[in-house]
Amino acid sequence: MKPAQPDHSFSNGAAPRILVVDDEPRLLASLASLLRSQQYQVTEAESGRRACQLIDSETFDLALLDLRMPEVDGFDVMNRMATSQPECGVVVVSGESSFTSVSRALRRGALDYIRKPFDPDELLATVEGVVGKQSLLRSHERIQMRLEKSEALHRYIVNSSPDIVFMLDEAGHFCFVNSKIETMLGYHPQELCGRHFRHILDDRDVTRGTYALNGPNITADNPRTLEVRLKTRGSRRANRHFEITAFPIDPETWPHTHSDSRGKNREARYYGTARDVTERKEAEAFINFQAYHDLLTRLPNRALFKDRLELAITHARRSSQKLAVMFLDLDRFKVINDTLGHAMGDRLLQAVTQRLERCLRKGDTLSRFGGDEFTLLLPSIHSHEDARQIARKLIKALRAPFELGEHEVFVGVSIGISIFPEAGADMDQLIQNADIAMYHVKARGKDGYRFFSESMSIDTAHRLSLERDLRLALERDELKVFYQPQVCSTSNRVVGLEALVRWQHPERGLLYPRDFLPLAEETKLIARLSERVLDQACHDVGNWIRSGHDDLRLAVNLSPMQVEHPRFVDTLMEQVRAHGFPPENLEIEITENLIMNDLEQISQKLRELADFGVRIAIDDFGTGYSSLNYIHRLPIHTLKVDQSFVKAIRSGEDGACIVNAIIAMAHGLKLEIVAEGVETSEQLAYLKNLGCHQVQGFFYGPARPAGVIEKTLDQLPAKAVSC
Known about the structure:
Blueprint: E1 17-21, H1 25-36, E2 41-45, H2 48-57, E3 62-65, H3 74-84, E4 89-94, H4 99-107, E5 112-115, H5 120-160, E6 164-169, E7 174-177, H6 180-185, H7 189-192, H8 206-214, E8 224-232, E9 235-248, E10 257-259, E11 265-276, H9 278-292, H10 302-319, E12 322-331, H11 333-340, H12 342-357, E13 365-370, E14 373-381, H13 384-399, E15 402-404, E16 407-409, E17 412-420, H14 427-443, E18 448-451, H15 454-476, E19 479-488, E20 494-505, E21 509-511, H16 513-522, H17 526-546, E22 553-557, H18 560-564, H19 568-578, E23 586-591, H20 592-597, H21 599-612, E24 615-621, H22 630-633, E25 638-641, H23 643-647, H24 657-668, E26 672-675, H25 681-690, E27 694-695, E28 704-705, H26 706-712
Parallel strand pairs: 1-2, 1-3, 3-4, 4-5, 17-18, 20-22, 22-23, 23-24, 24-25, 25-26, 26-27
Antiparallel strand pairs: 6-7, 6-11, 8-9, 9-11, 10-11, 12-14, 12-17, 13-14, 15-16, 19-20, 19-27, 19-28, 20-21
Helix pairs in contact: 2-3, 11-12
């Protein structure tokens, strides 16, 4: 049985390549044949010159080399091999036996020396030993190279990590920290090695951080995770939030030590990461701030105020103390907001907030309740006098003018105050009663304060009852439309009718607009009420127009809520068409403030109505705060002189100058003009002399039901002066 061939292959599976060099042909062939029989890849060189050529063109794992050769001897070949292929091993096979030759060959890098004539078994054993040694060396080099590459890769991964990676010894000193700490916090890694990790903890988190590391039950499956603030180098204000995750290190699986900057060896016992969560914490803080604060004024909002009030009530009840809740509403804010615009209104609210905050004690809570309303919590007061002093300070602080760009504006404040426990035992009661007290201040002239009293709740109950009745009135058709004639002062004939609403209350009798329209505005019922009035007026006046009064004009007042609705024009025209009412006979009356509240949008709506033939009148002209420039920009047909100016007319008095100016301006702009509130023949004569040819008022009688008006349309008014 043929013996198995030894496996001389390297780790890559290829047989070793051997260069055999000898100038004796027979010996060269014999040596090559012997090696080939052992599955080596053999290349023969019959001279030193040929060997050098092969060395330059091919790669070998081992060379068997004779020393004594003509021209280029074995030492020259060894030199070429050392230069071109230093990793190739050399074994000398030579007849030279002198110590000098052997020593010289070994010094030049030969791995072994075999004397001729050689024993084949000895030679093969030597070659096998050298080849095996070479294979081990190369395997070691490859492993070392892989280790170095792996270490470099891991170092790259660690230093390229988006997180800080660290190792600590048992006492909490840094053994290692990656370079990310320099870009995040400004520390050089070598600077921290050997220092305790509390060196970079924010002072407020030192105790919590050190306790967490020393706490029990930290395992690989249960690492310690906590959020702390880390100090940036040289600036406490720039401290950042990090989420720390720390794992224990088993000394049996990781027995390595690290040298710190002082040369002291430290054994790592913890490793972990620190992830920057500053942006997340800031986002959470901002979301939390949004949830509980008003973004315009930065004050606590209604939710946070109620939460603090609940807590204060609990504390006051437990310690038998008093507290006060104030409800503040700015006076004249709406006028400023409508006149100067919402941007200026926002600036005013911010300026008001700053002044109010300067009047408060530490521990008081001022909140923006909504719009121009504020609430104030005064905990731990001794008596009503404490609240009274604060209220006076607040009122005084807001009396000085506010500078808004080029404008100087004035606002006041109406304050209602409720005291715990007299004015309410719970949060909702205290806020509601302070609100009620504030409305009583408004009713008495504004810019003051009042404490809540039980008598105020009676008025509130009446208001709730009236609101309930108003809702029922809309369902039961208790609202009636009366008409007040608009008369031509030269012919004494009725040229128009203004539709005015009355409420036939089943218990209280006939109620006038002043008794219920403010409530309708507040409860958002005004839109339904106005639509009901317009429907009835279009029905009544439409019948009179079709019966022969072709030029009769219907004037109706519209609420701001109606006009500001996106479908205002469509809704109005649908009502007009439903009754077959001619649009050119309809005149809508709106106020200056409504126009200036949103000039662009209102202008567009008014132009659309004018295109349908509807006439536009400005009601209460001269009492608003707008610029007269809008008259040129809008399709306005009529100006109505407010009755307060007409009342000022006395024979020869200066109060008439405002009426003079308005009428002169209307003539110059080719606008019609209607004077309201005409009650005396002197007023009528004065207006006629100025050229005001349309008037309305008690001189021609009050507003009357449709049945009465219908009878007078073909007659001269009963009470009139001659032209």
